[in-house]
Amino acid sequence: MNWSAFVWVIFIGELLVFSRVSISFIDGWLSSAQVLKLGYVSGSFLQRGEEWVMALLVTPWVAYLMGEYQFAYLSGIGILIVAFAFWILFSSFVYSRSRVEQPSVYYHNGQATLACDIHTIHLALATWIIVMAYIPGISTITSMGIVITSIVTVIWGVSWGVVLK
After folding, report:
1. What is the pTM of this model?
2. Whole-angstrom distance, CA of residue 63 vs CA of residue 14
3. Is 111 inside any structural domain?
């Protein structure tokens, strides 16, 4: 286990989460109480299921993957994967920006927020590592590592759209 890589990835990932928490607090979108003061029923940072899964499950798992296994990060396919992840995520966020009907922590006052952009970067980086785990020859991940990565990915996917009360 490369503990240095593990600790750095945890630190950077949770720093990205903390920055979104801080920005959401400043914007008045951190808690349901803040959102109610703005006149909305839901959409706060703390009500988003994927934020909890990202902070408590995905970031630690990605840190474990990067600390335990070797990846060809800068190989041709590795660069292609990260470029594709960023392209898909940024294009989906640009598309969804034009369709905002209910303001939320990431879209309000007619625009996407800085928290949204940081979220997109965090998603793309996590997606990069998770997708590379599935490509034969680009990582040294074990079969059990693939199974756990799949479980984490399913939980992460299911958490999207979950609004906690």
Report:
1. 0.84
2. 11
3. yes
Domain assignment present for residue 164? The answer is: no
CA distance 112 to 12: 23
**Total domains, the chain:** 1
Write out the chain's pLDDT in tens, 165 residues. Answer: 999 999 999 999 999 999 999 999 999 999 989 989 988 877 788 888 888 999 999 999 999 999 999 888 777 777 787 787 777 777 666 655 555 667 788 877 777 788 888 888 888 889 888 988 888 888 899 999 999 999 999 998 888 766 666
- Determine the structural domain holding residue 133 and report its residue range: 3-159
AA letter at 130: I
- What's the length of the chain? 165
Question: Please, where are the H alpha helices in 58-142?
Answer: 59-68, 76-97, 114-134
Q: How far is Cα 163 from Cα 165, in angstroms, rounded to an integer?
A: 6
For 27, the token pair is 């914007």
CA angle, 22 as apex, 52 and 49 as ends, to 5°? 15
Calpha distance 98→107 (Å, rounded) = 10
165 falls within a domain: no
Q: What is the C-alpha to C-alpha distance for residues 63 and 13, in angstroms, rounded to an integer?
A: 8
According to DSSP, residue 7 is labeled: H
Q: How far apart are CA 61 and CA 54, in angstroms?
A: 10
